[in-house]
Amino acid sequence: MDLEKSLNISAAGMRAQGTRLRVIAENIANANSTAQTPGGEPYRRKLVTFDNELDRSLGLETVRVDSIVADRGAFQRRYEPGHPAADEDGYVLLPNVNSLMEMADLREAQRSYEANLKAIESSRSMLQKTIDILR
Question: Residue 125 CB: number of other CB atoms within 10 A?
Fold first, then answer.
């Protein structure tokens, strides 16, 4: 039944966006963390990449998380000579996390998750109405 397929597609989308939300939350939580040792590297921002996957049993393509990779962007530097993680010049490396960008990504992931949830609700409603007619 096509409604069952639409439920599976939306569920896969919700799983993928849920993973994305988790990674974004991790980035935001570590936005102000520093290295543990002088001159060490702080937390590095993570990114989620998606891929489509053919579900042979249902004969349709669904989205899945392909990988979670570290953003190779440059770290921020702040002059703070008294900090325990400062290097010999007195600079502390800060994570390459931009809170504004994370919030934009969070908003996009949230909307995608909600859209998939709405599609499931609509499919379920159509399925229920079909069952009611057949009674």
Answer: 10
